[in-house]
Design goal:
- The structure is a single chain.
- The protein is of the alpha+beta class.
- The protein folds into two domains: 91 residues, Roll (Diaminopimelate Epimerase, Chain A, domain 1); 91 residues, Diaminopimelate Epimerase, Chain A, domain 1 (Roll), CATH 3.10.310.10.
- The chain is 17% helix and 39% strand.
- The longest helix is centred in the N-terminal third of the chain and has 11 residues.
- InterPro entries: Phenazine_PhzF-like (IPR003719).
Length: 218
């Protein structure tokens, strides 16, 4: 690797396992050109990589292996935990952040999230049994585990546009689902990652999860 890289797991489960890996280049100034950042993100191969342009102000730049994102959920939660700042500045807007015990929380707008197809299934078992669909649309498959308690089972299939068959934990899709359902959610995604969300005033949505360093990190 040509850049120092922190590798985090974002939205870890209650047992500290799972979570979606995130690459964070803390010294983004060393790679100021967008095309070079995109090439590095493709080389790293994470679903998202964050370049930190100003660690004190929380200015960040987010990339998938193939494109730049104005906003994404798990990169913002991971960056907020790593930088320990009260807000992040993304190209979509300012994301507020806070720490609460084992959880890191951000507040953002669902309209900042990229479009996703939210596909509901009848049972969590149906979601568990899904095969990776053919290349195509970005699908967030979900079902109620316990509707009264707001507990959701979900899996995310990016359509292989970035060479990723299944995304382990997807904050942006969780924001979209929270806006659609209009209620707080406790989402179990992928192999056992956990995402918590809650709608707030003015169209804002708060989202939280656990973050840790990946044991396979650079």
């Amino acid at each position: 690797m040509t850049e120092p890289l922190d590798v985090l797991r974002v939205f870890c489960g209650p047992d500290g396992r799972h979570g979606n890996e995130l690459g964070v280049v803390r010294d983004g100034a060393r790679t100021p050109v967008r095309e070079d950042r995109q090439a590095l993100a493709g080389k790293f191969g994470f679903s998202e990589t964050v370049f930190v342009d100003d660690p004190e102000r929380g200015v960040i730049d987010i990339y998938t292996p193939t494109l730049r994102l104005p906003f994404a959920g798990h990169p913002c939660v991971g960056a907020a935990w790593l930088l320990d700042v009260p807000e992040l500045v993304t190209s979509a807007g300012v994301v507020t952040a806070r720490q609460d015990g084992e959880f890191t929380w951000i507040t953002a707008r669902a309209e900042w999230a990229p479009p996703r197809t939210l596909r509901q299934y009848g049972t969590a078992a149906e979601v568990d049994a899904l095969d990776v669909p053919p290349p195509g649309e970005w699908v967030y498959a979900w079902a109620w585990q316990d509707e009264a308690a707001g507990r959701v089972r979900a899996r995310a299939f990016p359509g292989r546009a970035d060479g990723i068959d299944e995304d382990e934990a997807t904050g942006a899709a969780a924001l979209l689902l929270t806006r659609e359902l209009g209620r707080a959610l406790n989402i179990t995604q992928g192999r056992g990652s956990q995402l918590l969300t809650a709608p707030g005033p003015g169209g804002m949505i708060e989202m939280g999860g656990r973050v840790d360093f990946s044991p396979s990190g650079a």
